[in-house]
């Protein structure tokens, strides 16, 4: 089972590799991040029994949000060590139109 | 309620602080002040009189009304405190949440794609159960068939949110007739 910051890093990489995820969120009301030493991983909060992943979804959405969330959970599950994973979609980021 | 509570508690503690300062000053006879010089004999006399009338059941109608109102106010405040606050994020079920802003953006985008809608404003409230309560206000031209537009808009929004996987527990659609010169778009 990975420790806090390693798990946060792995979760962040897994989330960003998921189709439909534009970037990691930063938290709306409180900062969503994991700290250890001088390192900070934004968008992932690692708790003893749960894991919270904050994302900004790309718009238009390639798939419904629950499917994107499920995909993130599947990717993170091997490192999560049985933690309950929550996915929070904080915002939508409109993709730039390359034809313009 | 939290802001209101904070204000009340701030005032209460400020009052207690002032009373505390007075108590120290008067108890230790500082600055020429002593407990015997406190002008509270009238107040304590009035209080005793009031309590005697309460015990004897001789309160005036105004006093009874004020006491009942205070009791009702306390009860309302107590119930409001017991109610858990509304969640800030919309629960989608199975450990997935979206912020209200995301739902607002989706609803607003799809509403303004409907040809008859010239502009919209959206309010989203999260609930403890999965799904959001959405209040959509759409602005349309005067003289349009509001019933048809409302049902079309409702269907379009519901279909779009369903495609995106965003659960809506309640969708209120309100149409407002507006001057196209004052709306976001004049024609669609």
Name the beta content range of chain A. Answer: 35-45%
- In the predicted model, the low-confidence regions of chain A spanning at least 5 consecutive residues are none
Structural Rg of chain A: 13 Å
Radius of gyration of chain B, whole Å: 29 Å
Main sheet makeup of chain B: 3 strands, mixed
Distance between the ends of chain A: 47 Å
Percentage of residues in helical conformation of chain A: 25-40%
Largest sheet of chain A: 4 strands, mixed
Describe this structure in words.
Chain A: This is Asp23/Gls24 family envelope stress response protein. Helix content of chain A is 29%, strand content 36%. With 100 residues, chain A is α+β, with helices and mostly antiparallel strands. Chain A has one domain: Alpha-Beta Plaits. In chain A, helix 1 runs antiparallel to helix 2 (65-80). The relative contact order of chain A is 0.25. Chain B contains five helices and five strands; from the N terminus they run αααββαββαβ. In chain B, helix 4 packs across helix 5 (146-164). The radius of gyration of chain B is 29 Å and the shape is elongated. The A-B interface holds A 28-29, 57, 61, 64-67, 69-70, 73, 84-92 and B 88-89, 92-99, 101-102, 105-106, 163-166.
